[in-house]
Structure formats: structure tokens, C-alpha cells
Amino acid sequence: MNNIFTNAMARNTIYGSVLVILLFFVLTFGTVRTLPERVHHENITPQVVLGKAVWEQNHCVGCHTLLGEGSYYAPELGNVYQRIKHQTNETHAGPFIKAWIEIMPTDAPMRRQMPNFNLSKTELNALLAFLKWFSEINAANWPPNIEG
Length: 148
What we know:
Blueprint: H1 7-38, H2 46-57, E1 65-66, E2 69-70, H3 80-88, H4 94-103, H5 121-135
Antiparallel strand pairs: 1-2
């Protein structure tokens, strides 16, 4: 291989760099333009804030994901309300999720088990409020299927 940097190589490098920079600006502009439509600041109550604190204190992200961020050991929880409604045909998923958290671990053989964090009723209700609030985010169709 010849170690000479030719004019054609320099021209292609410049054109490639300009193309990448233009692509970056186009994608950035598209995101900046659609982001205000997707902002979800309404209904952030003190209970939702407490639920986020409970989520962080118990390191739920160590097993679960929210919109794809976190660990893939346990199910995605960004759409848990829609998923439970879809699976159980119930209008309110909160009681089901609350009961699920309270009965863990079930000691079912050959099954991943969630530890019981012994949450108080206030903490559990706050966590449910946080998950419900999170499920209402316009996540641009993420996750791509109802199963998470």
C-alpha cells in the first residue's frame, strides 16, 4: 500500500465530513422540532416525585428498563400499564401491579423472582403513580411491541 495521500483521497475525506455534518444537523433539527410535542410535564404530582425516589432508592433499574434504559433482566416497565390492561382486559392496571409487587417472591421454581422490598402503602402507591405517569409519555412508539 502506498502511503501517499492523494488529492482524490483528500477530496473524498472532505466530502464525507461535510455529508456527516449535514446529516447530523438534519437529524438534530428533526428532533428539536418534534420534541416540544412529546414533552410530558403535566401531572407531575408530589406522589409521582416520591415514586421516582422509591424507584431510585430500590435500584429498580438494576433489573428493569424504562424506555429501553436499564438492565434487561426483568420486563420493560415503560409500558407496564398498557401491557397489563392488554393481558388482563382490565380498565385499571394499578391493583394488579400493586398485588404483583406485594406477593413477590412467589418461590415458583425455574422462574426469575423479584425481591420483596417491603414497601409501605405510601411508597407502593407512589411507585404506581410514577409508573402510570411514565406510561403516558409519548415515547415515539417505544417499546416496539406491547410485551416490552
